[in-house]
Amino acid sequence: MKNLLKLIPVFLLSILIIPTVNAQDESTTVDVNATVTTSLTITTTAVEFGSITANTSPNLAANGNDAVSVDVGNGASPGRILLSDGVIGAEVIATFTTATLSDGGSNSMTFTPDIWVGGDQVTSGTTVIKFQDVSSDGQITLDIGGSLGVDASQANGVYSTNLTGGSDLSVSFVYQ
What we know:
Layout: H1 2-22, E1 41-45, E2 59-60, E3 79-84, E4 91-96, E5 99-102, E6 108-117, E7 120-121, E8 128-130, H2 131-134, E9 140-149, E10 171-175
Antiparallel strand pairs: 1-3, 2-9, 3-9, 4-8, 4-10, 5-6, 6-7, 6-9
């Protein structure tokens, strides 16, 4: 029994020593990366259909690569969105909706956009546009044409997205 009592302190001491003998210090490093991009500058030009008549199907060409303009009036011109201050190599994805033109009262028409970048038609939410593919100066021009839904009995008047009952053509960009 005396031998057993002598072994207890040795046993307790070995329990305290063994973990420190097997302990190891390990360390590692983790890389951290970030890409800093500049904010895009966005400049817009309105889409103009000019004077149109009821019971027509006006279609405004976005640029020379799009279909020919049909049933548009004098002064018709495509709209434009200029994206500038982009980083060469950065990508942009455009998402857009239709717009509603109103006469400020109960009459309205729907504008369905047709957007092009150079010779490429842009599909909302899917087309990836790279700054280097378009220009070397950090700019992208999106040309905006499209069709206007004019009823056979469309009331005469001035129609705009800015009047009561109208809704703008909304274009948002994911810049990455």
